[in-house]
Design goal:
The complex is a heterodimer of chains A (112) and B (120). Chain A is mainly β and 112 residues long. Chain A is built from 1 helix and 9 strands; from the N terminus they run βββββββαββ. With 120 residues, chain B is mainly β. Classes of the chains: A mainly beta (112), B mainly beta (120).
Chain lengths: 112, 120
């Protein structure tokens, strides 16, 4: 059981937008602006950081990826879906000085 | 560009100690950042194991703390993971990664990962 809750799967057609949620608590997602999002494709390959600190995009990541947060839930939005966006997406968050870092269970994005 | 590479045995017997090393290139660990380990059991999600600063300060996942030791060797720009008393549930791909400037930051750059299987 992962600390952060993500939908198991989402899907969308090329060109559409999708949003993946990441629900935590007031002790992690809700308490800190330290939510990170990763893309992993294929499973077992090193995850790639696509969003850090809720809304920031690392250099080289497409501006089609954006992040936001409302209360205890963070969101990753991918606009203008492309075939190579198909991957597993994981969120993570700082969770305080006892638990430190927690991850979500991952969401499989299928591009139809 | 920083690069990280995990190394160590791919098979470990139950009750023994899993030992992995991460070699960092393209960046001196003493220049800053936290360095850590994350694992992913086959077909499952990610689990943060812990991280370390070049000074040796460590932070561990409370659920693994009694079995985990992370250490640093700045002279060789490496850090290591030891996980004792392993069982089949410790079978996973183990990743080393660079974190941020804050101990609670999630990983930014990741190694390719190495599969460790616990089996007799």
């Amino acid at each position: 059981q992962s600390a952060l809750t993500q939908p198991a799967s989402v899907s969308g057609s090329p060109g559409q937008s999708i949003t993946i949620s990441c629900t935590g608590t007031s002790s992690d997602v809700g308490a800190y602006n330290l939510v990170f999002w990763y893309q992993q494709n294929p499973p077992g390959k090193a995850p790639k950081l696509v969003i850090y600190e809720v809304t920031k995009r690392p250099s080289g990541v497409s501006n089609r990826f954006s992040g936001s947060k409302s209360g205890n839930t963070a969101f990753l939005t991918i606009s203008g879906l492309q075939a190579d966006d198909e991957a597993d997406y994981f969120c993570s968050s700082h969770a305080g000085s006892r638990t430190f870092v927690v991850f979500g269970g991952g969401t499989k994005l299928t591009v139809l | 560009q920083v690069q990280l590479q995990e190394s160590g045995p791919g098979l470990v017997k139950p009750s023994e100690t899993l030992s992995l090393t991460c070699t960092v290139s393209g960046y001196s660990m003493t220049s800053g950042y936290y360095w850590g380990w994350i694992r992913q059991p086959p077909g499952k999600g990610l689990e943060w194991i812990g991280n370390i600063f070049h000074s040796g300060t460590t932070y561990y996942n409370p659920s693994l703390k009694s079995r985990v030791t992370i250490s640093v060797d700045t002279s060789n720009n490496q850090f290591s993971l030891k996980l004792s008393s392993v069982t089949a549930t410790d079978t996973a791909v183990y990743y080393c990664a660079r974190g941020g400037h804050f101990y609670g930051d999630s990983p930014s750059f990741w190694g390719q990962g190495t599969l460790v299987t616990v089996t007799s």
